[in-house]
Amino acid sequence: MGLINSDFQTLPELFFSVFTHYRGQDSKFPIARKVNGVYEPIFYTALEEDVHHFSAFLKQNGITSKDRVAILSENRPGWYLADMAILNLGAINVPLYPSLPPNQIEFILNNCSAKAIVVSNMLQLGKIISIWQNLPELCLVVVMNRLEESVEDVLDLNQAKDEGKKILDEKPWFLEAAPVEPDDVATIIYTSGTTGLPKGVMLTHRNICENVKSSSSIIRLDESDCGLSFLPLSHAYERTGGYYLLFSCGASIYLAESVETISLNMTEARPTIIFTVPRLFDRIKMSILKQIAAESTIKQKVFAWAMSTGEKYHREINNKGKSSTLLSLQHALAEKLVYHKIKNKLGGRLRYFVSGGAALPQKIGEFFQSLDISILEGFGLTETSPITNVNRPEKIKYGTVGPTVDNVQLKIAEDGEILFKGPNIMKGYWKDEEATRQVIKDGWFYSGDIGEIDKDGYLKITDRKKHIIVTSGGKNIAPMPIENLIIESPYVDQVIVIGEKRPFLIALIVPDFNKLKEFAVTEGIQVTTNKELIQHKSVQQIFEKLLRTVSRQLATHEKVRKFLLVDDAFTIENGHMTPTLKVKRKEIITRYAAEIDKVYNTLNMVYNTE
Question: How many whole angstroms separate alpha carbon 144 and alpha carbon 129?
Fold first, then answer.
């Protein structure tokens, strides 16, 4: 149970211990990917050989200890292979989001002086070729897909592995003596940044290895487990949790084909654990409720009873440590009638989801818990390797991110900022000592988040320090709790609350257009575009009523006075979200500045005449 070997101090030691454990075994595998519509495994022996061959190729081509090698790729077997090969040489992996445009890739590769890059396909290769003349340090480019025609100074991964095999056949000792120390930098992860240029977070082997070890004592995994990977491996959360943690415990990683195929892939891979972000739960919840709405009245009543039973059962477990005999019997019946059918759609073996990357709305967590599906919400930052806190399977408190993991210390500063200390705290920002000094003081990492600790030691995040709105009246307002209340409405897909240096708050809302279209059909509203739909009086009334309801739960200065509906979702592609799915408030406010001013000017006229 747990780690195959807990003595590793570096990632190459972790890889070596797992490969050694499974050497000669053909029944277990670390990775599976879809080939011709069927999941096919990649076994430990084949992966280890490929890693050695690619390492030899990189070394032969001048990559040595502490050199930076970038990976620009979607999640695929080549990502794991390249990562292991780079780290085995003592080189530093610089992961890039495949959604990044060429100018941002150029900045990062120049900033870290990358000597080599491994890209996934011709699209990503095209980006590199377009900026290569501006990258004086870059001397080696490898593409994972097979090259159909030769490209000057570019090899594909198969050609590179073949060259590496020849090198090792001739010189079996070639890869010996690549010393890697625990405090050596393993990776530089550039934070996508909601403002300003990205900063390179330097994480050492010790940082990541200690985080894997501390997480493994809470999220108990073994070789009977498997995960479904769809969050980008370029994100520290998926990399530490969904890759290194699973690999270190002998669990298998199934690669999802895409975000759109997650539901299908769950039934095929039958995962026991999924690392995800909260938006997936919105989609699953909508799917469940839509299916129930199409069932008979009797089945809808049974579903409602099962949810009510689940809610009471888990409340008793959390409060008393056990439930009454009657409630346990009712819960067992609900399992047979309802829960297991929903669990089967998630593959039938899921033990728990782990949620991170953004705040999980409390009501979403409680919805799934009432269906006997556990979500372990956690917290962390790229700078903390990344996991600092996670809810415990035996005691989940939705609305919190749980206690700290082993080895991590936590305290709240006088102004409410959350501070961390431990072996998981980054070495610093690459080539930016001033930025490092601003966030690491006396060994404590200043997270930039505001929070509080409850009597059980569970941390509650209340907002981002830099997101605090200061109105023109001098009121300090945390927008996140207000946004969480608004987003509970089924008619809301995304929302940001605005009010900096303004007299009061307004909400910028991206509606759930599927739900609005259902409403339009029911009400006989005839429109042809989303823009016409959000301008319709009946639709506007939905959101007016919503804000009145939300405002009853808020202090006077926190009330949202008006809203602006927009028909363009916040996405990575339009620059309104970071690759880690955090909303870029500044960009959104700039994009809608004229519309926002118009709302405020109209409201000011109303308030001035009252």
Answer: 15
Q: Is the dihedral of CA 547, 558, 280, 565 positive or negative?
A: positive
180 beta partners: none
Alpha carbon separation from 449 to 58, 208, 445, 466 (Å, rounded): 40, 22, 11, 8
Place of tokens 């050694």: 20
Q: For 533, left (φ over 0), alpha (ψ -120 to 50), or beta? A: alpha
Q: Which of 545, 557, 544, 379 is nearest to 482 (CA)?
A: 557
Please give the backbone phi and psi of residue 434, each rounded to the nearest 5 degrees, phi first. Answer: -65, -45
Q: Which residues pair with 449 in a beta bridge?
A: 464
- Closest Cα partner for 412 from 379, 449, 464? 449
> Can you give the residue ranges of every domain in the chain?
209-422+444-464, 468-609
Query: Residue 362 — φ and ψ, nearest 5°?
Result: -55, -40
Beta bridge partners of 70: 94, 117
Residue matched to tokens 């998981």:
424
Tokens at 180, concatenated: 């890697």
Per-residue tokens: 396: 């989940």
Q: What distance lies between CA 258 and its chain's CA centroid?
A: 15
CATH 3.30.300.30 fits 468-609, yes or no: yes
For residues 251 and 3, is the Cβ–Cβ distance under 8 A?
no
β-bridge mates for residue 93, sequence order: 69, 187
pLDDT less than 70: residues of the chain: 1, 192-196, 603-610
The string of pLDDT tens digits covering residues 283-322 is: 899 899 999 999 999 999 999 999 999 999 999 998 888 9
> Helices 11-22 and 77-88: crossing angle, nearest 10°?
120
Three-state DSSP at 213 gives helix
Q: What is the pLDDT of residues 33-88, one digit of tens each?
A: 999 999 999 999 999 999 999 999 999 999 999 999 999 999 999 999 999 999 99
Cα–Cα–Cα angle for 87, 71, 108, rounded to 5 degrees: 105
User: Any idea which architecture 209-422+444-464 has in CATH?
Assistant: 3-Layer(aba) Sandwich (3.40)
Bridging pattern class, strands 387-390 and 375-380: antiparallel
Number of Cβ atoms within 10 Å of the Cβ of 343 = 16
**Cβ atoms of residues 390 and 376 within 8 Å:** yes
Cβ contact 172:147 at 8 Å: no
Q: Tokens for 369, please give them.
A: 């818990």
Instruction: Give the whole-angstrom CA distance, residue 25 versus residue 20.
Output: 10
Please provide the DSSP assignment of 568-584 as one string: S---TTTTSB-TT--B-
User: Which pair of tokens denotes residue 543?
Assistant: 């959101």
Token code pair at residue 268: 């095929």
What is the 8-class DSSP label of residue 94?
E
Q: Contact 115/137 with Cβ under 8 angstroms? A: yes
Alpha-carbon gap, residue 245 to 380, rounded angstroms: 15
How far apart are the C-alpha atoms of 228 and 354, rounded to whole Å?
12
Closest C-alpha to 108, from 144, 140, 137: 137
Task: Find all residues with CB under 8 Å of 275, minimum gap 6, and list them.
Answer: 227, 229, 231, 237, 238, 241, 242, 353, 354, 356
Parallel, antiparallel, or unpaired: how do β-strands 185-190 and 560-565 relate? unpaired
Taking a C-beta distance cutoff of 8 angstroms, is the pair 453, 404 a contact? no
List the one residue out of 334, 314, 339 whose CA is nearest residue 394.
Answer: 314
